[in-house]
Amino acid sequence: MNEIQVDTGIIKLDAFLKWAGIASQGSEAKFYIKNEEVKLNGVVETQRGKKLVKGDIIEFNNESYKII
Questions:
Q1: Under DSSP, is residue 51 helix (H, G, I), strand (E, B) or coil?
Q2: pLDDT, tens digit (0-9, with 9 covering 90-100), for 4-14
Q3: Which regions of the chain does DSSP assign to beta strands (E)?
Q4: Which PROSITE patterns does the annotation name (predicted)?
Q5: What is the pTM of this model?
Q6: Which of 32, 44, 45, 52 could lock onto 40 through a cystine, CB 3.0 to 4.6 A?
C-alpha cells in the first residue's frame, strides 16, 4: 500500500488523484472517477468532489493509496 501525505487535512478526490500522481490532469481524474474506476474505502466513488480525510484508502488500477 502506498502512503500519501496530505498536509491540508481535507482533499477532494479529483485533487488527490493528481496529488498522488495517478492522474496528470483534472480531466483525466474526472474520467477515471466517472468511469467507476476509483474506489474509496472499498466502495466505488463517482463524486469527484468527495472530501477525503486521513485514514481513507483509495484504490485504482490494482493499487491502494492511504492518506496519512
A1: strand
A2: 999 888 999 99
A3: 2-4, 10-12, 38-40, 43-44, 51-53, 57-60, 63-67
A4: S4 (PS50889)
A5: 0.91
A6: 45
